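Morning F.,

Quick status update on the modeling queue. The single chain you submitted on Monday has been processed. Sequence for confirmation:
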Amino acid sequence: MSRSRWLPMPLHSLLLLVVWLLLNNTVSPGHLVLGTFLAFTIPLLCAPLQTPQPRVHRPLLALRYMLRVLGDIVVANIEVAVLVLGPMRKLQPGFVAIPLDIESELPITLLASTVSLTPGTVSAELSDDRRWLYVHALHLTDEQALIDTVKSRYEAPLKEIFAC
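Structure tokens below.
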């Protein structure tokens, strides 16, 4: 058997051993043996539960994406504050279905989280076929503009970052 099969998560195993010894405040032979046993056994039992995730192919673009999202959060906070402090009858809340071009779980989760992190919008649901993201907007005046913004500002960079 290959090394990766016997030790699927070497860093986790080392961390488990160190934490075990620190929690017990001893390096006695018995705790070393038990800690080593746990450090090998727990990752072996957990390895089948891991879901493979797509790799980040463009890390600098990922950094730029994070900075863009942070900037959008600041701007959206100001916009929402102005809307909320104004007359409530002018608010036009609504739902919009955004068609998705990405299929992997991680990029979809990041997209939904980004939409929810940006004040004024909340990801409400993902369709069963993972082709539509339903978003609630606090003030929805142009449905297509919201769809275009989400697709161009958030989904397109995620497609590039994860090459999907």
